[in-house]
Target: Ribosomal RNA small subunit methyltransferase A
Amino acid sequence: MPEQTVRSHPSPRALLDKYGLRAKKSWGQNFLGDEQILDGIARLAVESPGERVVELGAGLGHLTARLAAHGGVVVAVERDRDMARVLRGELGERVTLLEADAARLDYGALAAGGRIAVVGNLPYHLTSPILFSLLDQADHVSRAVFLVQAEVAERLAASPGTKDWGLLSVLLQQRATVSLERRVPRGAFLPPPRVESAVVRVGFGEALVPVDDPAWFRRVVKAGFAQRRKVLSNALAGAGLGAPEVILGALAEAGVEPRRRGETLSVEEWARLARALPKIAAER
Model:
């Protein structure tokens, strides 16, 4: 199936003027209109024609049009009724419009027995809820391509032992490969945001580091990062994951020195610690 020709999509300013709208600051609306960057994001999201692609926060439809042009079967998710009106007016039946909350989607239903690609320009205040929802439903997702604040992208793609390594770094990299693809300057948006942005790609498949109980793994990692300045033995005990002697025993079994801090542990070390903790706790 050849790539479709991209129909001329008016600039963000032209579309806002056409529909008598303004970007809503409270919704974190910053519209990307740079054609080269939009095309790059679409190519990362749609790897082969006919793929089902779910776009979170489709906005004025600039990326939506690119995804469709690259052969994606697009479900455009947008809960702002004003934006939904623009999408219906500009893209019509070229895409399926779903007026829903992007942080509360059922990816299994959208995947319809297969796997979907997920893409979107994520407002800062919704980034974490969307990522946690994605992790909970990762079995239905082949890849995710997100435009996020640059500092968030750096955290997601961080390495152990760096200041950016944190809860979401560990949880995502336990399940997927994460790469920071490109940085996006403020001037590429209307209105320009206060910070720079970046494109991050998350590739899902089999878990890179198997864990016995994903919910318990998340709880242990969250406890370890809850108070970053505390050493692990104190952080885990303070989070109620066991008596000090139980925590020390689990750390020893996992081969983790108790005075290390959470940001120094690799995903593999976190997985060993999560396996050790419930087993020792059950023996008390």
Observations:
- The radius of gyration is 21 Å.
- The chain has two domains: 12-204, 214-282.
- The mean pLDDT is 94.
- DSSP finds twelve helices and nine strands in the chain.
